[in-house]
Amino acid sequence: MRILHVMGGNEEGGLEKHVIELVNTLAEYPDDQVMLAAHAKYQPRVSAQVTFIPVDLSRSRRSPLALWALWRSVRQHKPDVIHAQGGKAMAMIATLASRLHRPLVATVHGQKKKQPGLAAFSAIIAVSAGLARQINHPSVHVIYNGIAPPLEHDKQQIADLRQSLQPASGQRLWLAVGRLVHVKGFDILLEAMTKVPTGHLLIAGEGPEADRLKALCRDLKLQQRVSFLGNRSDIGALMSACDAVVISSRREGFSYVFCEAAMQATPVISTDVPIPNEMLPSSLICPTDNPDALALLMNAFNPDDPGHGDSHRAAREKLTIAAMAGATRDLYNGITPTDRRAS
Questions:
Q1: 35, 44, 149, 257: which has the fewest Cβ within 10 Å?
Q2: What are the pLDDT digits (tens) for 2-16?
Q3: What is 2-146+320-340's CATH topology?
């Protein structure tokens, strides 16, 4: 089976990580030829087994030049299935749909007020059940994003890392990870910390709200209890070194932070967003946009709550790259004519 993935834009985030890992894994199946049409900047991260088609789709989704380049790629490479990744690629493929004459799949990665062009697709993939409930289409399939198994960390290195991060020994060490933007709710988390009498919070990430959040931290007199770490390349080790990960997002399509923490067997508490609210018991979830509720959750934290272990086991079963690729391949086979299916 010949599968063409289409990724619009030239940004860096969860969508781009997902697509690159998915195509690299699908290309390992001997019966499939996997292609990716995307901006040339992504080519170094794509496996040599993937046919990479450099197409600049960073222009407007209505750009005649971008649409023509995409249409020319389809005509040249003759895929059996076209898989649009994210809203921009979906819109462009929907525009060309009447000329494509083959099964079309789209993956919805996040919440959008409008999702035009859905009717053009044979099937829609949602990366969480919460997201799936918002999609009006007769064939919606939940396929969770997956990540690679975590690296094994040396216990002494983790102990040394924890000591270097913890200003006062014996205090609970919280970790929050993400781009410093409004939707991640770090302002809510800082307000919650004023109602949590002990413990130290680490925030790993950069973003346009960094200065505002640091100013809020000063206004709330939390400078001695909150550390801004900036971007880190050792998130897995940080998660292992901390007592718990806290997710304060206002909304999510799929929380990679939860996925990574659960794979590291680090306890997580979260606001009511996917996928924590699909893997954790209600006792470890609180409403969004509510500092008081988040503070109550943090103050009631119990590392021995059985919900943590249950979520870790579920993550290792459902949130792997292999599980994601297998479910995606099964979907392709379900919508492709028999003579073109992979065996």
A1: 44
A2: 999 999 988 877 788
A3: Rossmann fold (3.40.50)
